[in-house]
Amino acid sequence: MIMFDIAGYRKQIIADNLHQAFPDKSPKEVAAIQQKFYKNFCDQWMETLKAISMPVRVLQQNCPGNWEVLKGHLQENRNVVLLLGHFFNWEWANLACAMQIEKTYAGVYLPLSNKIFDRLILHMRTRSGAMMISMKSLKGGFSKLTSKPYVLALIADQNPSVPDVAYWHSFMHREAPFFKGSVQMAIRSQAAILLASIRKEKRGLYRITFHTLTENAKNHAAEELMNAYINFLEDELRSQPENWLWSHRRWKHTRQNQA
To answer: Which domains, and CATH codes, for the chain?
Structure first.
């Protein structure tokens, strides 16, 4: 945490995001959230490096969850689209999910600019047998999901690469674009949609809770599903504000046209 204080890692971006997301909180309260965020941010990346070689048994102990909800949909021979956000520690949560199920587990990721670090992280993410689909080749990656049933996990609060065709909605008091391909794919494949909550109970212990949004996305409009996901994110942010990735530029785009 001291390292990030000295370096001033995106301090102004984090502070501005927090002040605008929580206008009712005092400067002292916002500063306290920011300090806790730095601590959790450091934990996130130290733990991610540990995950490269962490024994499966230890990882599963550190990420308990109501796995019966996820497995229940798979036993009913349903595809599952799993939506989560950038809550710490999302890397452990994805690994734990992939290790818990015997079906195809795929995740979507954005390749890192540092090629060496990108290969290291990709190795960690696939050590459980998970399939990783690059955001730079989504169509080709999705076409490989031919097994049934499968789980497709998306951290869907990431900024979309083409904001002009994104789904725009108020998010923590400001408009933000959301990648809508996740729910569109769920509708096409008649998949169940699950929302995943990740709660940090203490250092190195994260509890995952799955909530079924729908058993068949085809029965709902895309806007309805997107709104439910965004509302879920906001509820999670309000209950654990120090546990989300405030350092990324979530609100950097301005809407030009509504697709």
So the answer is: 2-243 (3.40.1130)
